[in-house]
Amino acid sequence: GTVKESGEKHKGSVEIPNLSEENEVDDTEINVSKKKGEGDVLKDLMRTEGATKVREALRDYLKALKTEFTLGMILPTKAPVGQELAAEQRLSGNTMQDSVSPQSLDRVGVKIPTVKILMREIFNSPADELYSVFTTKELVQKFSKCPAVIEAEKGGKLQMFDGSVSGEYAELVPSQRIVLKWRCRSWPDEHYAMVALTFKDMAAQTELQLECKGVPVSNEDSTRQCWKQQYFEEIRLLLQQSKDDME
């Protein structure tokens, strides 16, 4: 900016750390800073009248985003998947190492980056038994320890963990493959990942391969932990319990 009386030019910056469709624009922080030296009059002006102008621009920006959103774009949102998702733990036992494709970052909508998660797990159960755990309401409710909506047919609805996870079955090949539209409640509205579960039968064991495409980068770790801890570890316990009961 330029001081009108003296003609002196000064450089500064405006930072907006918490812009979100979920926040009121009037609650949005606007931090003004400048390099050392004269020019405080410009800094003070930016903190008052300048902040008002910035908020007007933000209102227009979010309004434009909402218009784009109706065409399938994605709004910015506050990040983490629910507090219930635990911190990452080391893998042990017959859990195989997860991996993330190194070239998996894609930009979606208004430049919100997404990532593809790849995971593999070994279960000491045949494929048909493991497949049924994902498609039978009673078994889903047992391992998730919550009421669930499981309509295991193409276009059927899915809801688990008190609504923290929801989605829709897109493809089912018994004992071989399940494809889901899948989302966590705190993700941007109407944004879904595509989850493919592939069951590889290995006699008394099954290798389960998970591919989860379209996960917001900020939710990558918590999404991986959701699958590890709230799905796979609980399913493994359920299968072991069923095996013990049979014996």
From TrEMBL:
Listed GO CC annotations: cytosol
Which SUPFAM superfamilies does the UniProt entry name for this protein? Activator of Hsp90 ATPase, Aha1 (SSF103111), Bet v1-like (SSF55961)
Q: Which Pfam family is an annotated match for this chain, by its short name?
A: Aha1_N
Annotated stretches, region: Disordered: 1-29
Where do transmembrane segments lie in this chain?
Answer: none
Q: Which GO terms describe its molecular function?
A: ATPase activator activity; protein-folding chaperone binding
In its UniProt record, which GO terms are filed under biological process?
protein folding
Return the InterPro entries for the record: Aha1 (IPR036338), AHSA1-like_N (IPR015310), ASHA1/2-like_C (IPR013538), START-like_dom_sf (IPR023393)
Q: Which CDD domains match?
A: SRPBCC_Aha1 (cd08892)
Q: PANTHER family in the record, alphabetically?
A: ACTIVATOR OF 90 KDA HEAT SHOCK PROTEIN ATPASE HOMOLOG 2-RELATED, HEAT SHOCK PROTEIN 90 HSP90 CO-CHAPERONE AHA-1
Into which family does the record put it? Belongs to the AHA1 family.
UniProt-recorded name of the protein = AHSA2 ATPase
Source organism per UniProt: Ciccaba nigrolineata
